[in-house]
Amino acid sequence: MPTNVSIDYKIAEREYQEATTDKDRLKALRKMLSTAPTHKGAEKMRAHIRKQISKYKDLAQKEGKTKKVKSLSIKKEGAGQIVFVGLPNSGKSTLLSKLSKKHVEIADYEFTTTEPIQRMIPFENIKLQGVEIPAIYDGFYESENGRQFFGLIRNSDFVIIVLKSKDGLPILKKEFEKANINLNSKSKYHEGFIDYMPSMKITWEDFDDQKLINKIWKKLDRIRVQTRAGRKVAEKPIILNRRATVRDVAKKIHKDFIKKFKYAKIWGPSAKFDAQQVGLEHELKDNDIVEIFIK
Ligand SMILES: Nc1nc2c(ncn2[C@@H]2O[C@H](COP(=O)(O)OP(=O)(O)OP(=O)(O)O)[C@@H](O)[C@H]2O)c(=O)[nH]1
Ligand SMILES: [Mg+2]
């Protein structure tokens, strides 16, 4: 996939990913085609867009005749949004209920959960947002809300694949491929038509593992940092991406803090000793405490 695409193309591509109706998808795809690179190396890419256009042309016509789809989105909250996906009756609700310690409807028949449900999962001094996605099956992507549910997954920070047995994997793989989501990535990024996302497979034997949330948090690729002013340490940590620096903390507190920055003092895993003085480029670690001094 050629990467030297124009800004206009990137904007059109974003519009395509965020579109919630086939009509909007079609509009965005046409924009993508008109702004795509014209050189020979991009021929495959243009052919792919053309193919998508003809597909959505059909779908958009059908959509016009049926009722409008309702919005099934869930607002992001907490230190990271984790989605639970799996086949029907694979134990998604059971796991979400265990981790959140809250009630979730569980039943021994299939398709108990028909719309996304969220429960906050407490972990030490933070909360993660757990979201159960209705069961995935052969043909899920093409189903009424399939693309919208995949939109939710795409927008999340981490995917947990809940498995009763490994037999379920081929179906899941096929549906995720249709949605252009690759789950074999260490971090989340987007390239060409594909969304790369971090994920983790969980089977029923792992359910009682108290270390599970810890493991999920580590794989989320984020860190939490508490700020300090004088003797007071803020209770609620700031959530940052892994490899974040003091500069990122300063930026989050106040936009003037970078200009006025004198030095910072740090405590915790990234500090050589308590109250070590560091500059803006110092890389932080999970559970650090930072105090910023300004001019
Ligand atoms: N033996 C055993 N049964 C389990 C375990 N976890 C879940 N179950 C059972 O598996 C069934 C499925 O549970 P749910 O949690 O509702 O599954 P789900 O994936 O949310 O199902 P849908 O929402 O219908 O897609 C229930 O009957 C649970 O009691 C487990 O660790 N061991
Ligand atoms: Mg369920």
Task: Name a few traits of the molecule.
alpha/beta, Rossmann fold, Ubiquitin-like (UB roll), 3 domains, six-stranded mixed sheet, five-stranded mixed sheet, binds guanosine-5'-triphosphate
Can you characterise this structure?
The protein has helices spanning 7-18, 22-35, 43-65, 92-100, 146-155, 169-178, 212-219, 246-253, 257-260, and strands spanning 81-86, 117-123, 126-132, 158-163, 181-182, 189-191, 194-196, 199-203, 222-229, 232-233, 238-241, 261-267, 276-278, 288-294. The protein has 295 residues and is of the alpha/beta class. It folds into three domains: 7-65, no CATH class; 81-219, Rossmann fold, CATH 3.40.50; 223-294, Beta-grasp domain (Ubiquitin-like (UB roll)). The strands form three sheets. Strands 9, 10, 11, 12, 13 and 14 form a six-stranded mixed beta sheet that branches. β12 (261-267) and β13 (276-278) form a beta hairpin. The chain is globular and about 65 Å long. The model has no long low-confidence stretch (mean pLDDT 90). The site of magnesium ion has 5 residues, from α4. Magnesium ion binds next to α4.
